[in-house]
Design brief:
By secondary structure, this protein is mainly beta. The chain is built from 3 helices and 12 strands; from the N terminus they run αββββαββββαββββ. A hairpin with a 2-residue loop joins β5 and β6.
Length: about 210
């Protein structure tokens, strides 16, 4: 599961093959998806990009799910068919940096700080994104899949349950890239997403 503030944790969730994700309408890391634990990369460890043919990076949000009101905390609970219903599932939101190989999600680094979404306008929550200290873009939560992190959760959970995947409290959802993924320049060593309210999320590169 994803931990609370000042922890890295290990987001849980139904494991999935990204080819199946794209067949279901998700475009790898370009769409919202339920995150399998193996895609979560520890924030303190550098990411080895040598095996990647076309490494690209983008900031985004990772949402941790809670139990739905009145639900039983399993995939048999009421389904979030709309962003409004999905918002009730959101337990916490983290800033994150995704590393993609072409269009496929290769790994996600999740920030140490999280916030409950209540009282936070996620659609307006901004991020500055830089590579080796050079700013490459800015964005806000409205750039998430579906136009809002809650809409991204609705897409991911609905798609997962349609496939028969188990969705439980503490499952983690990648809400899609906030910027078009940027090609990682040769020799680049560090990537950083600086989120309003959620702090900095660094990704160190190893070659």
């Amino acid at each position: 599961m994803i931990g609370g503030p000042s922890t890295t944790g290990n987001p849980g969730g139904a494991a999935r093959d990204e080819r199946d994700a794209r067949d279901d309408g998700d475009d790898g890391g370009a769409g919202a998806l339920l995150l399998p634990p193996e895609l979560l990369h520890p924030i303190e460890e550098p990411f080895d990009v040598e095996p990647l043919a076309a490494p690209r990076v983008s900031p985004g949000f990772v949402a941790r799910l809670g139990a739905p009101p009145g639900g039983n905390g399993t995939s048999g609970a009421p389904r979030p068919a709309t962003a409004l219903h999905a918002a009730a599932l959101l337990d916490a939101v983290f800033g994150a940096v995704a590393l993609l190989d072409g269009h496929d999600l290769a790994g996600v680094v999740v920030g140490r700080r999280c916030l409950a979404p209540a009282g936070l306008d996620l659609g307006l929550t901004g991020v500055l994104f830089d590579i080796d200290g050079v700013q490459v873009g800015t964005a806000a939560g409205a750039a998430s899949a579906g136009g809002h992190p809650a809409a991204a959760v609705a897409q991911a959970v609905t798609a997962a349950e349609r496939r028969g995947d188990r969705v439980t409290p503490a499952s983690a959802v990648w809400c899609g890239p906030l910027l078009d993924p940027v090609a990682l320049p040769p020799g680049a060593r560090s990537v950083r997403a600086s989120f309003a309210h959620l702090g900095d999320v660094p990704l160190r590169v190893r070659r």
